[in-house]
Amino acid sequence: MAAERTVAAIVAACLGAWTGAASATAPSGGPPSVSKPARIAATKDAPTLAWHEAGVRRTLRLESTLEADFSPRLGKDAGPLRPAGAATKSAAPLVSPVFRDDQGRLRALPGGVLVALRAPLPGADARALIARAGATPSRALSPTLWVVEGPVGLGSLELANRLDASGAFASAQPNWWVARTLK
Q1: CA distances from 152 to 5, 45, 54, 67, 129 (A)
Q2: Is the pTM of this model over 0.90?
Q3: Contact present, 62 and 109 (Cβ < 8 Å)
């Protein structure tokens, strides 16, 4: 396995690989298939990123043929996945690269970070702790779990890793979008 690099060091590499595949289509000419395990082999040379989930280090690789569009859309569609490079320039801030985790699941970053406090705190104290760590609290999900504001895309992964490494929290991880799999 290639030597792993920090998120900050490979953001440019990921974005270059991510935006370089604007014409990705399936062999049939339709949208790319996202559920076939064979896609994992195609990403073996992609940059490796990592985050911590419940104290366990997890890795993922860039899926350069796909992107996830989290911009508001009218009506229902097949979800946020589409061929990479399909985003218009005006929608670019709401588009995330797509990754495959170590289990082969597709993941993307719609924005935000989930922060677990070490112990329940009153709302004002929790907000102050999160602010001291350099983040903006959004809302509490429970007495010990908070959503922190974060950008769509790699910025949320970088923020989650920084908050987790700070030691101020029990854990911090990106607010992942994960592709559904039918059983």
Answers
A1: 21, 24, 22, 12, 23
A2: no
A3: no
Q: Within its chain, how far is the Cα of 71 from the centroid?
A: 15
What is the model's pLDDT at position 89? 59
Q: pLDDT tens-digit profile of 121-137?
A: 999 999 999 999 999 99
Mean of pLDDT values over 159-180: 94
- Distances from the Cα of 83 to the Cα of 26, 30, 69, 71, 152, angstroms: 9, 10, 10, 15, 17
Q: Which two tokens stand for residue 120?
A: 């329940």
Q: Are 18 and 10 in contact (CB under 8 A)?
A: no
Residue 161 neighbours by CB distance under 10 Å: 21
Q: What is the pLDDT of residue 163?
A: 96
**pLDDT grade, residue 146 (50/70/90)?**
very high
